Amino acid sequence: MAHQVAVIWEGPILFTRLFEECGHTCELVTPHLLAAPFFKRRFHGVVIPAGFAAPGHTSTLAALRAISPRIKRFVSEGGTVLAFGAGTDMSHAYDWLPVPITYRYGFAKTLLAVNEGHTSASILEDGADEVSIDGILDNITGISDGQVILEAPSGPVMVQITYGSGRIIIASLHEYPSHRFVREFCAGGGEGLL
After folding, report:
1. Do residues 122 and 136 make contact, with C-beta atoms less than 8 angstroms apart?
2. Which residues contact 69 (CB under 8 A, 6 or more apart)?
C-alpha cells in the first residue's frame, strides 16, 4: 500500500524522488499552500527537508509556525512528522512542534553511537562510518516518550518522540536517509489531517 507523504518546501526538489522510489505517493506542499486556511489533506507522513529554517533561503519555518496547531492535531491523530536539521543558528527552530526541542547549530563530520534496537536506526546506510550533521538536539530529557536513536559525542542528532497516536522524528543528519528507512518511516503508522 502506498503511503501519502507531504514534502514541505518552496518548490520541486530531488528529495521527493527518493520517497517516490521507495513506494510512497508524494505531494509537494509549498509554504504558501500549507499556510492557506483552505488547505486540508490527510497524510501518513510529513517530511521537512534540511535547511527549513535558513533565512533568505526558504519561508518554510514561518509557515510551520503558522500551522503549529494543525501539526499537533496531525501527529495526535496518528501521522508521522520527519524533520531534518534546521540549517541555521536558531535554537528555537523546532518551536512549531508540540514538544520542546532546542537545536544547537553546527556542521560536523562525526562518528555516531547508534541505538541498534530502534527500527529508525536504519536511517543510516550500512557501513556508514562518519556522518555529516548540521546540529545537536538539546533539552529532550524531560520528554518521557522521547528516545535517542543517534548520538554524536556532543549530543543527540536523531530522536523519536511518541505524541498522541503519532510520532515525531527529528534528524539533524546532513545526508540522505537510506532507502530502507524511507520505505518504513510511516509504515504501520496511522494518518492525520494536516
Report:
1. no
2. none
Compute the residue count for the chain. 194
Q: What is the DSSP string of 105-127?
A: EEEEEEE-EE-TTSGGGGGSPTT
- The strand pairing partners of 7, in sequence order, are 28, 47
The number of angstroms, rounded, from the C-alpha of 1 to the middle of its chain's C-alpha atoms is: 22
First to last CA, the chain: 20
Is the sign of the CA dihedral 132, 160, 77, 19 positive or negative? positive
d(CA 7, CA 9): 6
pLDDT in tens, 59-84: 999 999 999 999 999 999 999 999 99
- Confidence (pLDDT) at 44: 94
On whether the CB atoms of residues 177 and 83 are closer than 8 A, the answer is: no
Q: Could you give the CA distance from residue 100 to residue 140 in angstroms, rounded to a whole number?
A: 7
Strand-by-strand arrangement of the 113-114 sheet: 25-29, 4-8, 45-48, 80-84, 166-171, 155-163, 146-152, 113-114
